[in-house]
Amino acid sequence: MMRIRTLAGLAAALLISGASAQTLGLRLILVGDSTMAPRSGYGNALCEQFPLLACLNLARGGRSTKSYRAEGLWNSVTALLREGGQKDLVLIQFGHNDQPGKPGRSTDLATEFPVNLAAYVDEVRAAGGTPILLTPLTRRSFKDGRLNNDLLAWAEATRKVAADKGVQVLDLNALSAAAVQAMGEDEADTLALAPKPPSSSTPASPAADPAVTEPQGQPKSLFDRTHVGPKGAALFAGIVARELLKLRPELAPAQAGRR
User: Fold this and answer.
1) Is the dihedral of CA 247, 250, 253, 254 positive or negative?
2) In 10 A of CB 213, how many CB atoms?
3) What span, in angstroms and rounded, lies between the C-alpha atoms of 89 and 54?
4) Quick one: 14 exposed, middle or buried, by C-beta within 10 A (0-12, 13-18, 19+)?
5) Is 232 exposed, middle or buried (0-12, 13-18, 19+ CB in 10 A)?
6) What are the 10-residue block averages of pLDDT along the chain, 259 residues in total?
7) What are the C-alpha distances in Å from 31 to residues 61, 133, 145, 229?
8) Is 14 helix (H, G, I), strand (E, B) or coil?
9) Torsion angle, alpha carbons of 21, 27, 28, 32, to 10
10) Phi/psi of residue 257, each to 5°?
């Protein structure tokens, strides 16, 4: 039943399809956590960057490399890949919920996280798709004027898997961290889902304590320094689109006519 329900929901996740997309013979599939997912991440905005590309945002909030598979979500991805008929590029981004302190989700950085990522790469290839690994989007908490990028170790592990497997990697962690550091804390706070509340009631950022559990599916507060609203989604989607075109120049025609 899990697989039936999940597959039934794929139609809602297909943002762009039709004759134009089919003519290109390309499909983009997004796999990851809430920082890529609809409503709380940049994934939908990324799909909008390629109006002539069939794009499925299958990222889901609160998921890790372990729980995305355990809940049957990954089975739906491989089922799509086995349909055939077009070239699938699968963007895979995890790390936030693989960090310690999240029951049912966290993974060991040395023995589980890289093994899980490697398995995703192998299975995408076995099903006829092309995997591209993304390092995790940075959180946006600052300390003494410097960004506290607590996902560096997971970014490095992702890069190592990519090197070991000979797969392309888009270093979103480095790129997003540089962008956030350059704009500073106040401007970075405008990338959130909602305006920053008064300082006396500002919620603790997950970056300050990675053990704080991210709620499944929906962020706990409308303001935090992990998830993004429209402004943040547009910024990070633009970064990913730019770098993706460098890795896969054949995607350029899919941007034709973008406003």
Assistant:
1) negative
2) 16
3) 11
4) middle
5) buried
6) 42 43 77 97 97 95 98 96 88 98 95 98 97 98 96 98 98 98 97 82 46 50 90 98 97 79
7) 11, 10, 32, 19
8) strand
9) 130
10) 85, 5
